[in-house]
């Protein structure tokens, strides 16, 4: 069996305290379901949209292993306001591989954006970042990802260990299908400590205080040579004062 490191889960009641104390919190799928008041049917319905993600045409390593969409909104006081579709932009300081360029991805489909569970996710994560940094308008970028083994290897973070230049990063693990690898690594940005673990539970959640920790995910490979495998995630970033690139 491939080596997997046991995730250092937080309880739902300890989520905010652990996020504040160590810069990250990891929730089990059962706690995420309770937090979102979501049953398996509604989670599966939302995840169905990952079967229609366009290829990422901006990969500078020449790969064909990433499919994604992108949409933006503002979350404040329990309300979600959609923002006009925009390019995803990061400075080179945070993304040495793809920074400094405008990347226009296809938007998250309207059926997904109007799904009550999608909007509840945006609001609930907004409450978590407000508990950490104080309530305010949060500028949110949503990234549904599928990393697959089309090239024999897939890279969830081709830019390597990094920060995103935001206040909070939320990584929902949706599915691992026929793969090995994909180990999550979280390190102190200003210290020696780090954690490594493998997210395996569908709808488990990793919350990261982006100013305090650096994160990456190791490459994936197919469990069975020649058979396609993939790793589905939903990555949300929350930033005060505006979207990057404004």
Characterise the protein shown here.
- This protein has 246 residues and is α+β, with helices and mostly antiparallel strands.
- It has a single domain, classed as Jelly Rolls, CATH 2.60.120.620.
- 19% of the residues lie in helices and 31% in strands.
- The chain contains 5 helices and 13 strands.
- The protein has helices at residues 15-22, 29-36, 40-47, 110-113, 116-133, and strands at 24-27, 66-68, 71-76, 79-82, 138-148, 168-177, 179-181, 183-188, 194-198, 204-209, 213-217, 220-222, 230-239.
- The strands form 3 sheets. Strands 1, 2, 3, 4, 5, 6, 10 and 13 form an 8-stranded antiparallel β-sheet that branches. It has a 3-stranded antiparallel β-sheet with strand order 9-8-11, with no helix packed on it.
- The termini are far apart.
- The mean pLDDT is 94.
Unreliable spans are: none
Strand content: 25-35%
Radius of gyration: 17 Å
Tell me, briefly, the overall form: globular
Structural class: alpha+beta
Q: According to CATH, what is the topology?
A: Jelly Rolls
- Total count of strands: 13
Q: What's the mean pLDDT score?
A: 94
Count, helices: 5
By CATH reckoning, the class would read Mainly Beta
CATH architecture, please? Sandwich
Distance N to C terminus: 47 Å
Number of discrete domains? 1
Describe the structure in brief.
The chain is an alpha+beta fold. It has helices at 15-22, 29-36, 40-47, 110-113, 116-133; strands spanning 24-27, 66-68, 71-76, 79-82, 138-148, 168-177, 179-181, 183-188, 194-198, 204-209, 213-217, 220-222, 230-239. The model has no long low-confidence stretch (mean pLDDT 94).
């Amino acid at each position: 069996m491939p080596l997997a490191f046991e995730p250092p889960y937080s309880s739902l009641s300890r989520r905010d305290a652990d996020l504040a104390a160590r810069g990250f919190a990891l929730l089990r799928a059962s706690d995420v379901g309770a937090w979102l008041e979501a049953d398996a049917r509604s989670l599966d319905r939302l995840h169905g949209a990952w079967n229609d993600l366009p290829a990422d045409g901006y990969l500078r390593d020449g790969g064909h292993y990433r499919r994604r969409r992108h949409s933006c909104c503002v979350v404040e006081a329990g309300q979600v306001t959609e923002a006009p579709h925009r390019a995803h932009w990061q400075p080179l300081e945070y993304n040495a591989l793809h920074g400094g360029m405008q990347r226009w991805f296809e938007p998250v489909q309207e059926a997904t954006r109007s799904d009550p569970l999608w909007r509840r996710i945006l609001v609930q994560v907004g409450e978590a970042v407000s508990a950490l940094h104080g309530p305010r308008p949060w500028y949110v970028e949503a990234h549904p990802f599928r990393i697959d083994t089309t090239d024999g290897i897939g890279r969830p973070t081709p830019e390597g260990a990094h920060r995103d230049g935001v206040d909070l990063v939320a990584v929902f693990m949706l599915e691992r299908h026929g793969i090995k690898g994909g180990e999550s690594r979280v390190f102190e940005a200003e210290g020696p400590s780090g954690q490594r673990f493998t997210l395996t539970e569908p709808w488990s959640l990793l919350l990261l205080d982006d100013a305090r920790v650096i994160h990456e995910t190791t490459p994936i490979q197919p469990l069975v040579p020649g058979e396609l495998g993939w790793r589905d995630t939903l990555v949300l970033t929350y930033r005060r004062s505006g979207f990057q690139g404004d």
